[in-house]
Structures are given as C-alpha cells and as structure tokens.
Backbone:
C-alpha cells in the first residue's frame, strides 16, 4: 500500500528548528525536535547544506515512524489500535511530501519516504513517538558437515523436514537446480515471499549480480548439484531487501522491519521457525546498548521481541570488518543469535580486506581508505579468519571458507562462498534440523543454549576469546535428552553394555492400523540401532529399521493392525539409552 501526500506550503518554522537545533525554541517545538533521531537529523542537515549551495530540490528521506504504544483510549486489540494510530497520523495536517511505504499491522509504526517539511510535521503529532532514518545494511559476503557432525544428524534422519526458514537478503533465483529447478513461482521449495525494496510481491533476482541471497539460501536448504544445505529438506520463504536500482551492490535499502513483520504475519501459515539475516551495519560491544540505541527504530526492536515470543529463532551475521571487540547490528541484539565463522578445512593461503580499526596486524597490500589487508598463510579447520567481527557478546561460530553453494552467475554452484554470510545460514539450517527432531517447537533461548553449551570451544587468537563452534550432533543429543522428541510419551531407559546386544525397551502391544513412531537416544559416542517388529503367523519380523551409525535413531512407519514390539540394538560402545514410542 502506498500513500502520497504532497503540499507546497512550507512548514518553515519547524523545518528550520529541526535543521538548526541550537536555535532558541519553545518547549513544544523542542519536544518535536527531540523525536527526530540523531542519525536522521544529521542526514537532514547535510541535505539542507546541499539545498543552500546548489539550489537542489528537497530530497526524500527513507524513514521509519514509531508510534506511541501507550495510548489507552483506542481499541484493546493490537491491530485495530495500530491502524487507528496510523490513521490519526495520516489524517493530520502534513505539509511537504510524504510517501507511505509499509503500514505495519502488528508493530507500532510505518515506513515512509518524506522530505524535511513532512518530517517536521510528523514530529509535532502526539501519536508519534520517534522518527528514525531507515537503516541501510550491507551484505556480509566475503568440509563443514563432517567438521560439525551435521552429516551424522542427516544420517539419523533429521534434515529440516516440515520446517520453514525465512531468508532476508538481496533476491532469490527460485528455479535454480540447487532448489530443485521448480519453474513455478512460488513452488514447493520456496513457498512465498515479498520484495520490501521495490514494494512488490516478487522477491526474485533483478540481475545475475544479485546472487548473495541465492547463495545464502543454498547453504541453509539447498539440495542439488553436489550442494547439501544443513537443512536440505527444509522449505524457504524469501524477503528481498535490495532495490533493483542497487542490483548486485550488496546495499540493502529495503524495509527490513517490514520483512520481519511479514514473517510475524505468516509464520503460522508456513510454519516459519527460523530467520536468517546475513547483513548488518555499525559496531556494538554491548547487547543492552544495542537494544536501546536511539538510532535503531523502535518497531525494529518490537519486531524482534515479537518473533522471539512467537518461538522463532533469529540468526544474524557478526560482520566481516575484522573488528576484535565489536559486532554489527542486528547480530548484537540480545534476542538474536550472532554468528561468526571459522575455516572448515585446511585450504590455500587467503587474503582479505578489512577495517583499519581492527586489532589484526596488517600485511602488505592496498585496500583503500580506512582499510587494510589481513592474510592467512596456512588456514586450517577451526581457525577464526582475520575478517570476522568478534566480541564478548558474539554467541557462536560456524564453518565458512570455503563452501559450495548455489551461484546465480554461473547457473550452477559457487565453489568458495565465504564469510559470516555463509556461517549464518549454516547455523539457521542446523536449527531447522534440531527443530524437526522435536516436532518444531522450541523457545529460542533454549535453542541458543543448546548451540552454545555443546559447541567445540575455539580460541580467537586476536582477542583471546573462547567461543563455541557449532557441533550439530552434540546439540541434537543434548536437545533430545532435555526436551524429548515426544513430550506426551513415556520415557523408557536401560543400559547396553555389549555390542550386538538387542533389548526390548517396552513389552509387545496390539495396535490398530496407523502410524507408529519411535525414538532412541544412546550415550554420546555409541552406535545404536532401532527396529520395529510385527508378528506374522507367530513369527516376529522386522518391518522398519534405523541404522545410521549414530546414537540417535528414529522411525515413522504406517502399519496394518496387529501385534508389534520395539527393539534396540547396540552396535558400538556401551552406556545408557532412552526410548520413546507412540502407537496409532
């Protein structure tokens, strides 16, 4: 929905006050000025200087307007209350030019393009809490499955089935072979999406150079052309935030708040459980400051809070500037899991361009103003690359450098996708596989604890910080031990001491026709098998088995009416086991 309002009578007094805040002003006018956040004031001042020097027309600024959530005279249901607040603002006298881009339905605010005159009039309204410059993000672009034991989780049967990941990025090549080459849009792999940069319902790429989002999506959920995502059977929704005018530049001017709200509005429809954002801006070393920064739009924080409350886990890239004590926004937020990266294998020497604000010693080479070269002569698995933004608030590390994923420009695959842009969807896909194992519902704080508490501790030599690198199998094992794959099923426990031993964790039972489900969780390091047997003419016969060479097995089997029994067999190691089953 777009709303244009253009008037040509200048609101000169307030505009002057907003652009020259040192002028003596009334209390009422000062309150209005204070609503315009510092980053937007600086942008307006710069625009005013250009207008004075060059006689240029008033530019439009991309803004997010936060509305006061505390007005109690409006309806109690949030959507009508928010709509009534928006209508009150739109119906008030506004001079200048205001173009409404997105009216948020569940967040207190809206996004727009407006000149300084309209911004001044917006600030005068009681319903307006604050006016923010819309953040501009930059893409964080710069043998992972065995390293993280993700392949073992896939062998155990968990590949993200039934879970949808929301990717917010520059665009998607929807019919790429890595996603099954499904020509229709939307399709069975990429279920839906929206373009929040060009304001239409088509998030597909505008040019071949717009390839970051396709590569990101392939890391999380690709399954084709020798690419296997961390959740190859997960589905996707895609929210595009790079304009066609910026095609392939990695500059995201789109309404990210609108994209997050889209996820909120559609998460039940598509079973969206995970959000992946491989972009950021700024530098923060404290989550509390990050959550309350005056230049961060209130609706942004509100969206993150609502997604977290809805049980949706959010991942964001820490950034690739080589900072040793700071990470980017939104990764720095307390309810977002921030992701840095490690090398996934021993590879050839690597060189990168990073910020000169790094603590990393520079090497020979030129990268431009305020940039420097950093390099690794002998990169090895679990080494933190020198480009990674790190800090005490960084949550996890995941593999990158080098990764094979989807490539738009070649129509096939990218052999070396790197950076925290890779690590972030890697972690998002891991989360999807874990969620599949417990039927899709988990508090994001528990997901964060599972990934951090079971990770392999890796030392970042630049700042001597130890950070956990994702270990997918260990996280899954810990999750099943705490949450259980079937909360309504009784837990049966026992011990297996000799390889080859087979036990019946529960007695035989008669069952009607229907779905049988069973899960076994052995001690870490053991290899257990799970079988379902049915009696035929007095003889027990195996009708389903799971033998993946791991301590975690599960079975889903649609069977006829009859007599059944479950069996657990130890193949390697020794230790305790837990077993759950559900009969039709």
Residues:
């Amino acid at each position: 929905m777009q709303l244009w309002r253009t008037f040509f009578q200048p609101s000169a007094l307030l505009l002057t006050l907003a652009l020259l805040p040192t002028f003596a002003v009334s209390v009422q006018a000062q309150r209005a000025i204070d609503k315009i956040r510092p980053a937007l004031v600086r942008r307006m001042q710069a625009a005013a200087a250009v207008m004075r020097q060059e006689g240029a027309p008033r530019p439009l600024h991309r803004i997010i307007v936060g509305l006061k959530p505390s007005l109690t005279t409006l309806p109690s249901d949030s959507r009508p209350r928010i709509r009534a607040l928006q209508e009150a603002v739109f119906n008030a006298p506004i001079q200048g030019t205001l173009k409404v881009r997105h009216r948020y339905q569940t967040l207190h605010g809206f996004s727009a393009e407006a000149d300084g005159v309209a911004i001044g009039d917006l600030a005068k309204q009681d319903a307006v809490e604050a006016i923010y410059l819309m953040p501009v993000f930059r893409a964080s672009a710069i043998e992972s499955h065995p390293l993280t034991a993700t392949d073992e989780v896939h062998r155990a049967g968990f590949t993200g089935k039934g879970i949808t990941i929301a990717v917010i990025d520059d665009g998607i090549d929807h019919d790429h072979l890595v996603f099954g080459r499904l020509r229709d849009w939307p399709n069975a792999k990429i279920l839906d999406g929206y373009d929040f940069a060009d304001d239409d319902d088509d998030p597909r790429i505008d040019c071949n150079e717009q390839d970051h989002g396709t590569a990101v999506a392939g890391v999380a959920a690709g399954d084709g052309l020798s690419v296997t995502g961390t959740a190859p059977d997960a589905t996707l929704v895609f929210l595009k935030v790079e304009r066609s005018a910026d095609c392939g530049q990695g500059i995201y001017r789109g309404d990210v708040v609108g994209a997050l709200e889209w996820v909120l509005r559609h998460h039940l429809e598509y079973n969206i459980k995970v959000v992946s954002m491989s972009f950021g801006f700024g530098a923060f070393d404290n989550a509390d400051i990050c959550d309350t920064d005056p230049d961060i739009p209130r609706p942004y924080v509100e969206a993150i809070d609502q997604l977290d409350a809805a049980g949706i886990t959010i991942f964001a890239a820490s950034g690739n500037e080589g900072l040793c004590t700071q990470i980017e926004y939104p990764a720095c937020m307390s309810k977002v899991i921030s992701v840095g990266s490690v090398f996934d294998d021993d590879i050839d020497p690597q060189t990168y361009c990073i910020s000169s604000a790094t603590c990393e010693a520079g090497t020979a080479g030129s990268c431009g103003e305020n940039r420097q070269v950093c390099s690794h002569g002998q990169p090895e698995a679990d080494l933190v690359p020198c480009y990674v933004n790190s800090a005490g608030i960084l949550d996890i590390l995941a593999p990158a450098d080098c990764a094979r994923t989807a490539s738009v420009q070649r129509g096939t695959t990218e052999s070396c996708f790197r950076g925290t842009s890779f690590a972030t969807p890697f972690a998002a896909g891991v989360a999807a596989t874990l969620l599949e194992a417990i039927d899709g519902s988990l508090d994001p704080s528990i997901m964060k604890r599972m990934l951090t508490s079971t990770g392999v501790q890796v030392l970042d030599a630049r700042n001597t910080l130890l950070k956990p690198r994702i270990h997918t199998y260990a996280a899954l094992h810990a999750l099943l031990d705490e949450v259980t794959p079937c909360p309504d099923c009784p837990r049966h426990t026992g011990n297996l001491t000799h390889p080859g031993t087979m036990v019946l964790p529960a007695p035989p039972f008669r069952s009607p026709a229907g779905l049988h489900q069973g899960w076994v969780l052995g001690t870490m390091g053991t290899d257990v098998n799970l079988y379902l047997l049915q009696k035929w003419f007095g003889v027990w016969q195996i009708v389903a088995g799971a033998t993946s060479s791991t301590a975690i097995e599960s079975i889903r089997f649609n069977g006829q009416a009859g007599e059944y029994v479950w069996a657990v067999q130890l193949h390697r190691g020794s230790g305790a086991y837990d077993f759950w089953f559900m009969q039709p």
